[in-house]
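Translate sequence into structure tokens.
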Amino acid sequence: MTDQDDLAARFEIQRPYLHAIAFRVLGSHADADDAVQETWLRLARTGLGDIEDLRGWLTTVTGRICLDVLRRRGVRGEQPLELHVGSLPREPDGNARIDPEREAVLADSVGLALYVVMDALTPAERVSFVLHDVFDVPFSGIAAILGRSTAATKMLASRARGRLRSGTPTDTNAAAREVVDAFLAAAGRGDVAGLLSALAPEVELRAQGPEGLAVIRGASKVAAQAARFAVPHARSHPALVDGVPGVLITVNGRPVTVMAFTVESGAVTAIHGLTDPARLGQLVPSWVT
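Result follows.
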């Protein structure tokens, strides 16, 4: 094996981790692929040389590339970052959280995505927040990427957390959101008549839970099920799920359900949901709740 082959093999071990970083920062698999490829090209040109911590070096380079991408394209006009929360394999310990690399691999195999409000952040805030809060990169390392002091980098991450907690996802379909809000309000009151007014006659509810997939069809049956949604201490967090109005439900700060709503002609025609607190707890970061 040549030195270049060895270098390529060592890089491939780090690729899922680097793609996870780039995807979380940039919000696009295609852009993440490009960023990771650019990282490889820079490593290939540089060689191992005096690099003592390859993973740390690659993290720094990937972070700088992502920062440049955000600055070039203008982060505020892009689509929000996707956090995948679909069907995950069972864990021996339901309370255990998975690491970012494994999360990134699992994310590619699922179709349900919770859009997190990232478009309100500046490029520096976004890089600082993602690298520290999601990937546990120390602030000193992030400071080197941003070209700022460690204290300033900590402030960037703190400001990002504050914006994310108070923000609401940008929803271009305001009319659909109003229908969803009316549905959720009726569900919170246990108001079957109000639920029926928000549902299309042939509405379909598909809910993935710990016991498997449940499918309910018809407005009356879905309304009866939704009337039981209300639980003590529940809180709704508006979200965009696969680009349509959705909601994340938390109870006492813990995520329990995420739902996506398809709205046509002023009525909900389909609801897709994931109800599995253990699996949601693995993937929904604490700052969302």
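Note: The CA atoms of residues 14 and 68 lie 21 Å apart.
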